[in-house]
Amino acid sequence: MTQTVSMPLWAFILILLFAAVTFASHFLFPSVRWFFRKRAERLVEQLNTRLQRPIEPFKLARRYDMIQRLIHDPEVTHAIVEHARRENIPENVAFEKAKRYAREIVPSFSATAYFTVGARLAKWLSRAFYRVRLGRFDRAALEEIDPNATVIFVINHRSNMDYVLVTYLISRTSALSYAVGEWARVWPLSGLIRAMGAYFIRRRSRGVLYRRVLERYVQMATDGGVTQAIFPEGGLSLTGKLGQPKLGLLNYIISNRSENTRDVIFVPVGVNYDQIFEDQFLIRAEKTGKRRFRPSFISVVKATTRHIWARLTRRFLGFGTACVGFGPPLELSSFPQDTPNITEAVADELMQRIASVVPVLAVPLLAHVLLHAETSDRDQILQDVEKILADLAQRQMPAPHRKANQLVTQTLERFANRGLVELTEKNVEITPFGRDILIYYANTIAHHFPNAATQKI
After folding, report:
1. DSSP notation for 13-40
2. Is residue 392 included in any domain, yes or no?
3. What is the structure's pLDDT at 303?
4. Does residue 425 form part of some domain?
5. DSSP for 236-260?
6. Band of pLDDT at residue 456, cut at 50, 70 and 90
7. Does 116 lie in the same domain as 91?
8. Tell me: the pLDDT tens digits for 422-438?
9. What's the DSSP call for residue 234?
10. Is there a single domain that holds both residue 92 and residue 234?
């Protein structure tokens, strides 16, 4: 027993490595996981005492458990069998395919990541680029929402900043679970987004099995009371106008309604900006008909470098105002079960409520006036702005909190700095480069002025 055993150095190193891995997997990792899980549980308990809508147990379930529950759901199992029969493949192969879909969809929510990293990062990013303002906001109506109901924020999609901005404004009341497109499925962004509670969807997938797995996850989350946020337009608006709603996610939620499920309450949210990062990419995508408008790596580096230099030299004045309005909540239970085309009826009502609370900001307002003005005279433009501000006040609609003269002067300077207009002492001339951009921003509030002449990109 005490004899010396000799062996090659490489073999000894391998034995030490195997021993270290065994020790870590059996003793160290479980202890570390237990430690962090206990800290997370204490954090959730503290958060639930101050959140208006506490974090539901469904959202706190382990990701592995949720995946198992999803792929063994009776309706998913039936879809697996049907897929195997239709594609003439073994059922275990179809099962593994459904399991891959489930792993792709199911998030791994972390309260620590959401509230200590995500919410703070969202706040910093929002305030670093914008003056953040609340538009129409009926606090009493939102506070009266049934605490046992599932709340779903339905948001118009103007920019990728929408996720950040809404997360910042709502993080004090609840934790949102977003439906995120395929653009975010890149490492390491995907890991952070999953930890924030978002779930990935393939917007262009037409596979029956995939849609069934996604449908059941959305329905489980809704039944579990998870507060969600969806963009009914399905993608960024290429023209600035509100788009037609895509009915997929809404239909999943509405079709699952029964007497035994929670009521679902939709909260319409209207978002608008003085300037977004993607405006020129979106306009180009509309003109070319190619929706894949990802910028090249070189253009991203150049833009980032210019932005950093502008901040260092204190020439960056921000992108103006970002404003969010909240409309009156819509209860799904207010629609009778036998309502014809109920999904379309709910979608149409939601889009009308979103449109009514999209804020009117300085840049869209002045863009609208310039494009519809009969003259380029600055005094006449000022009078037109004063008339619109008075009309908005009469309609009790949120408007820029600035005097007309100040609004026109500051916004024209912003336009001139971007090369959208040329200014003289008495006149304003729109440049060829600026016309498309001004039309884009004017379109964001065009529905508030239905009698104005339409402008097309």
Report:
1. HHHHHHHHHHHIIIIIHHHHHHHHHHHH
2. yes
3. 74
4. yes
5. --SSSS--PPP-HHHHHHHHT--TT
6. very low
7. yes
8. 988 888 999 999 999 99
9. S
10. yes
* C-alpha torsion sign, points 63, 64, 69, 75: positive
Cβ distance 267 to 326 under 8 Å? Answer: yes
pLDDT band at residue 457 using 50, 70 and 90 as cut-offs: very low
Residue 34 maps to a domain: no
How far is residue 280's CA from residue 389's CA, in Å, rounded to a whole number?
28
Peptide bond into 188 cis (omega under 30): yes
pLDDT tens digits, one per residue of 45-54: 665 566 667 7
Domain membership of residue 455 (yes or no) is: no
Amino acid at 238: L
- Whether residues 128 and 175 fall in one domain: yes
pLDDT band at 190 (very low <50, low <70, confident <90, very high): low
Q: Which pTM was predicted?
A: 0.84
For residues 341 and 252, state if they share a domain.
yes
| Whether residues 155 and 296 fall in one domain | no
Do residue 399 and residue 414 come from a single domain? yes
∠ CA 205-208-214, rounded to 5° = 70
In whole angstroms, give the CA distance from residue 179 to residue 160: 13
198 & 92 share domain: yes
Cα–Cα distance between 76 and 80 in angstroms, integer? 6
CA angle, 202 then 441 then 397, to 5°: 100
> Rounded to whole angstroms, what are the CA distances from 278 to 89, 150, 347, 348?
44, 33, 26, 27
Amino acid at 105: I
Give the pLDDT confidence score for residue 294 in this predicted structure: 61
pLDDT tens for each residue of 130-146: 999 988 888 788 888 88
Please count the structural domains in the chain. 3
Burial of 408 (C-beta count, 10 Å sphere; 0-12/13-18/19+): buried
pLDDT band at 454 (very low <50, low <70, confident <90, very high): very low
Nearest to 264 by CA among 146, 144, 137: 146
Half-sphere exposure of 164 (CA within 13 A, CB side): 19
- The residues pairing with 269 across neighbouring beta strands, listed in sequence order, are 155, 326
Q: Where in the sequence is the domain holding 314, given as residue range(s)?
A: 281-318
Note whether 433 and 311 are same-domain residues. no
DSSP structural state of residue 118 = I
Q: Which of 358, 373, 408 marks a domain boundary?
A: 358
Q: Which of 108-112, 233-237, 346-350, 447-451 tops mean pLDDT? A: 346-350
Q: Can you give the CATH number for the domain in which 232 is found?
A: 3.40.1130
Identity (one letter) of the amino acid at 39? Answer: R
